[in-house]
Records
---
Amino acid sequence: MASLKPFHLFSVVVVVAIFLLSHPVHSDDVADQLLQQLNSFRTSGNLPVFTKNKNAHCAAKKIADDLEDQPCTNPTNSQVNETRLSDYPKAISKCNIDANTTSDAVVLPVCVPKLVPTLLLTNFTRTHFSKYINDSRYTGIGLSSEDDWMVVVLASNTQAGSLANGAVSLVKAKVGLGHYLVLGLVGLVLYLLQ
């Protein structure tokens, strides 16, 4: 019976570790739908489909968070001009993107009340943004929305727009609380097993 106690404790530690280290899955239905529509649009023009780019998504999320409180002044047109990702140093830093790989990446922010899917698609395919959507150099994509804002970040198939990760030192690495808790629990289990 005493030998079962450490096994049960270890089982509990493993289950807790799985819950602490797993990331919740949040499906952004509007972004997924827009991606499908953009890929259908590109396919009809004999262009390759966009593939999801983790770093482009991270940058889109950070930029959308920053735009969240900005008013939507002209909701029927994309009133905001495209910019280079290199104009967003905070997003580049938070997403650990090598700044040398951002000069060809482009940010396309659009404001549409309630993010109506047909209006979103129109804002990307029937405005000045369409030149980027129709450009075969752009193969990677990241999408994120906040309130009435949808941000699309396009990564190119060139080194200058690939959005590659920057080098991370152990000192700069950010370790979450969950990692410390798991480490503490593993140490406790090892201590109890002695």
---
Amino acid sequence: MFFGGYAYHGSTFEQTYRCYPASFFDKPHLESGDKVIMPPSALDRLASLHIEYPMLFELHNDATQRISHCGVLEFVAEEGMVIMPYWMMQNMLLQEGDTVRLKNATLPKGKYVKLQPHTSDFLDISNPKAILEKTLRNFSCLTTGDSIMVAYNNKQYYIDIVETKPASAVSIIETDCEVDFAPPLDYKEPEKPQQATAASKAAAEGGETVVEEEPKFKPFTGSGKRLDGKASKLQSSEVPSTARSAPSDSNKRANQQTSQPATSGASNSTRQKTGKLVFGSSANNNKEPQKAPVKDDEPPKKDEPKFLAFTGKSYSLKR
């Protein structure tokens, strides 16, 4: 094998070239796929061999022992050089003008591929599946360990090839391939809320779990109003028993006033003259204090009959 020449090994093609990126020759469309441009002499040699189509090649970087695979797009490059996508040169750790060895290869059709995006931004695309399917149409093969580039909306997304089946390098031309995604490299699991953990620790230290009772739903608890402005009978009858039993502030004050000693009335009685009527609070000083009415003596109120649905008599049309 020598630079710029062929090494013949039976029916195999193997050649060493100097590699250059597609930007050097104004061919930006190469960046969207995995195909290279080779010189016309390579076509002459491949035509004389019985090589299976599509033409696939194995790339070797002898300096770093990196291996990848690619397809061929055209045979219009200058002799002794090959034009490659820049992202492929990054995978192979190649610089402009470095030597790379190409060898024809036959790869099985892929059945399963596992991908891992570098950043979570790729998952924020509205339809990443459609974008990925459109990009992979420009690819002829995938190799485990490579990183492919997906261009979308003026942004470049890099995706690692984590696993391929049934081999470490597979062809994806005219095949049904199952695609699986691994979490992105910068993905972080959401942290658990600290409030819940602090509450659980406090409950564990106290030894008792305090369960807050949730308010139950009570239907039809609102207040009704009449159109004529009068108070409804149902509202007056549905007064809670606690409100009846609790004495109001005005009743307490009245009881306190009646429980005062009668000495004040005796002192004011000397000021009154006989045969005259005295109007005012002192008029009742000689009288005994009135006792507060006892509620227990009142007759119990009768509960008004409540409305009961479907309690009428039934009649039959047949006799």
---
Amino acid sequence: MFLRLCCCNRGRSTIDKLEQQSFLEAHLSPRSGCIFCGASKENGFNIVWENDHYAVFTDINPSCQHHLQIVPKKHIESVKNLSVTDVGMVQEMIEIGHEVLDRLDVPPHLRRLGFHIPPYISVPHLHMHVQALPYSSPLRRLKYPVVRGRRGQEKGFSWFVEADQAVRLLEKGVQVRILPC
């Protein structure tokens, strides 16, 4: 997004460091009105794990017995806003998700971790779904389709991307999107 705005900014060939910093702070700092920026017990969230960078809470409308959300405390709109520089963050979120599911004694083969891809998101703040399968109904399962890619692509057509798929895409410098990538 930042590069797109820079390239479309006619009359200037570059943006100085102060403008760049201001732009990034406006897009990565907590936003008023963003419900996930305020994720805390005081705000009614059932926080099950927390540190200085992430919060994990139970989903308000769970699709399975254990359905949690991991959110970074800094505001990032969605998985589509991530780049290769965010691989470490996504890997940390994966580790946290597995740690929480370990505490719940969920076997590895019954775990799903991933992100919905805009416009199929309910809250415009990056959040990873951490789930213990099976889903509570076939309709709930349809909300989280995992589609493997073909012909050298990592992911097929889907509005959901598994966390490991997202990491592999980001490592290649590919933007996560609904279309195959």
---
Amino acid sequence: MAATTYPPGGTFLDTMKKSFVDVPIDAEKDNAIATTEFLEAAESLTTLFDVLGSVAFTPVKNDMLGNVKAISGAARFGELAGSGAQRAENEETYCDRGASAAEELSDSFRSAYTVTLKPHHSMFVKPIFSAAMSACPYRKDFYEKLGADREKVESELRVWLAALSKIIAILKGFLDRKEAKW
């Protein structure tokens, strides 16, 4: 895969069509998450797999895009609910957990995969994801791929991850409620 280039002073996050930071949350409607913007942000997130630089991530990216498409079809009514929320929460928790700065990406992603997506994958899919986890670059190399200014990359990632974490918390709260258990 070719190296990703950004405008001078730019980062990967500048190239995203939609960020989780831009996803409206309506506090007056029980923290309803705007479906269209959420799905655009989730789709934008999948371009991160291109930055990782290995074709081993193609099945992972395709799986996430497939889930985005499935949620899009099921959630045309405006807010995430039911199984769409569960799929979304699993995908986003996987990415959020993969951001742990204390360990290498392959270890972070492998741990995140084990607790979020692995239980939903067949015995045929699990080895594909395992191979992708082994293809993760070292954390320092990954940050370099996100932009030349590491401090700016880390600053932007903190804001992006805070927005993603807020959405995950809302989705988890929804899924824990009685009316979500059907």
